[in-house]
Design a protein that fits this description.
Structural class: alpha/beta
Strand content: 15-25%
CATH architecture of the largest domain: 3-Layer(aba) Sandwich
CATH topology of the largest domain: Rossmann fold
CATH superfamily of the largest domain: NAD(P)-binding Rossmann-like Domain
CATH class of the largest domain: Alpha Beta
Helix content: 25-40%
Radius of gyration: 21 Å
Distance between the termini: 26 Å
């Protein structure tokens, strides 16, 4: 089989994948056009439209990340080609650490102490018990479920939400529209780990933010399209006093890099990170890629992306 790889550090991926798949010819986008046209499989992260159109008879695509929105929205995506995506592949643990940091940031008042430092103010805040700090996780896929369990293991009550009904030990699970409203009203920190689909775009709008308790906080290591940014800024209030929403830790944005003119950069209760919460660990990812490609080649069943659902 011939595998075309497209990702940052594509040569490193090519060499490592070739070692795991000695039966395969692995090439990158720098290979001659004739070789690219003959590729059987594409392993890629956010490939350009032109590259997607080059292979003449693709048998399958491996998306080198958990989010497939960029691939599904690419006009060069060939119809009918099965797609598999990375599922966790070591990302969940890293995202879990990001979320745990964010939860503690607000639960232990580090946001307030930072502002007090700038003002030269020495004032201690009473610690809220973890048991009294419920955390909501929207999205209970492979990554969301792992993150929910990590936060619960730290001693926080965790509420999880999914579109359809799920059950996770130690997690209070909600589903559907009514379940979302119920979860929002209960949590002091809300974590977003949903995919980007038509049903989830701007799911956190003015109405959803108004359902959160006064002083709640928001963490988004998921997709930037999940939040109505104008509604978020309204809920955060101006720089002089806290609004309804206490603060937000944001790692994903509708446009990336985040434009220089975005007010999120300078808002005193927003913390911006450059989509770094869950980088893909090479070793774990390559194991999944090799497994998926061998399954494709052998005609074995595997979980594929549903383009209509968006995940």
């Amino acid at each position: 089989m011939k595998v075309l790889v497209h990702i940052d550090d594509a040569e490193q991926w090519r060499d490592a994948l070739a070692r795991r798949l000695p039966e395969a010819e692995v090439i990158t986008g720098s290979a001659p056009a004739e070789q690219r046209r003959q590729a059987d499989y594409l392993a890629a992260w956010k490939p350009p439209e032109a590259l997607l159109r080059e292979p003449e008879a693709l048998k399958g695509i491996v998306n080198l990340g958990a989010g497939v929105d960029a691939l599904l929205n690419n006009p060069g995506l060939p119809e009918g080609v099965p797609i598999v995506k990375l599922r966790d592949a070591g990302m969940a643990s890293l995202i879990g650490d990001y979320v745990r940091y964010g939860v503690l940031h607000f639960q232990r008042d580090f946001d307030r102490y930072r502002r007090q430092q700038h003002a030269g103010e020495w004032r201690e805040h009473a610690v809220v018990d973890k048991a009294d700090w419920p955390v909501g996780v929207l999205g209970l896929g492979a990554i969301g479920a792992r993150v929910a369990n990590m936060v619960a293991a730290d001693g926080f009550p965790v509420h999880g939400w999914s579109r359809s009904e799920k059950a996770l030990e130690g997690i209070t699970c909600h589903h559907g529209d009514d379940g979302l409203d119920d979860l929002l009203a209960r949590v002091r920190t809300l974590v977003l780990l949903l995919p980007d689909t038509r049903a989830t775009r701007q799911i956190i709008d003015a109405r959803a933010l108004a359902r959160l308790p006064e002083g709640a906080s928001l963490i988004n290591p998921g997709r930037g399209t999940l939040i109505d940014e104008a509604a978020l800024l309204e809920a955060l209030g101006d720089g002089d006093s806290e609004g309804r929403l206490r603060g937000a830790l944001l790692d994903a944005f509708p446009e990336e890099p985040l434009p220089e003119a975005s007010p999120l950069w300078v808002h005193p209760r927003v913390w911006v990170t450059p989509h770094m919460a869950g980088p893909t660990p090479l070793g774990d990812a390559l194991d999944q890629v090799a497994e998926a490609l061998r399954a494709f080649e052998a005609g074995e069943p595997q979980a594929t992306v549903d383009p209509a659902a968006g995940y």
